[in-house]
Backbone:
């Protein structure tokens, strides 16, 4: 029995709120709207930057806050205030990229809420992932630069208000290769967190940039106790958020390790899993 009704519902997007067609179903929209009418904050929580979120999400009229880039940023969408941020310093980002250059992979980064990628890597990304959705996202949402590390070296002094890189994403289709890269990154750097949102990627953030800390920061900002938070997710980059939430919900289509961090399992994202749980617990 859940005694305390949620006042914040944090929702991963891909594989959770969105179905396989990258849409919010009418039933799910209705559940979110009704929860919002009861005073619940509906908070998208994504690895994407804000303008990279699907228009269907950004157009939700009841949104007030958003957790973006795996928790690197928390925005007040109505005022533009940054509630929380945590970035990889430029020097550390360059060291990470130099390590990545030794592996047969491609990578990009998010900085100032835009995606950036070496042009030759962007052109070859299809060779490193079987996820065509990911290929389309990279092609549509990454700015091409001649060489990413040199671009960062030039960008930093010209933009003194930018503290660093928000996220580095790695694309590699081979699971053993991804595990080896993650192990080397974790051994080399104690100030980062390595996660994954899809079967063929790794995502690198500052140690204090993850969805769990972001949800904590937002809850603290608006005065909501941990017990009154609820989170839905399906990927490894959702685990800390599920660990923090008072009610943690994994989707039936989650990556296998995610289930150990959940209180409840919802039907998959193609069967209105988010709506079903909200209808049972919140409405």
Residues:
């Amino acid at each position: 029995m859940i005694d305390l009704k949620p006042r914040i519902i944090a929702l991963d997007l891909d594989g959770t709120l969105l179905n396989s067609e990258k849409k919010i179903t009418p039933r799910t929209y209705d559940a979110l709207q009704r929860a919002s009418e009861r005073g619940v904050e509906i908070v998208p929580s994504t690895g994407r930057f804000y303008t990279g979120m699907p228009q269907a999400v950004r157009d939700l009229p009841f949104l007030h806050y958003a957790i973006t880039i795996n928790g690197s940023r928390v925005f007040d969408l109505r005022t533009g205030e940054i509630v929380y941020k945590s970035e990889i310093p430029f020097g550390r980002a360059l060291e990470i990229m130099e390590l990545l250059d030794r592996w047969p992979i491609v990578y990009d980064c998010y900085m100032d809420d835009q995606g950036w990628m070496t042009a030759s890597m962007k052109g070859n990304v299809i060779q490193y992932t079987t996820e065509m959705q990911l290929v389309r996202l990279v092609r549509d949402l990454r700015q091409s630069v001649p060489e990413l590390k040199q671009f960062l070296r030039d960008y930093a002094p010209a933009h003194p208000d930018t503290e660093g890189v928000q996220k580095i994403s790695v694309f590699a289709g081979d699971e053993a290769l991804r595990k080896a890269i993650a192990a080397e990154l974790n051994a080399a750097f104690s100030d980062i967190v390595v996660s994954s949102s899809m079967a063929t990627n790794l995502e690198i953030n500052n140690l204090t940039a993850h969805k769990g800390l972001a949800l904590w920061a937002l809850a603290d900002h608006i005065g909501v106790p941990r017990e009154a938070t609820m989170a839905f997710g399906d990927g490894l980059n959702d685990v800390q958020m599920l660990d923090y939430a008072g009610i943690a919900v994994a989707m039936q289509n989650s990556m296998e390790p995610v289930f150990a961090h959940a209180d409840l399992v919802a039907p998959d994202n193609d069967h209105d899993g988010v709506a079903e749980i909200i209808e049972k617990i919140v409405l």
About this structure: The mean pLDDT is 94.
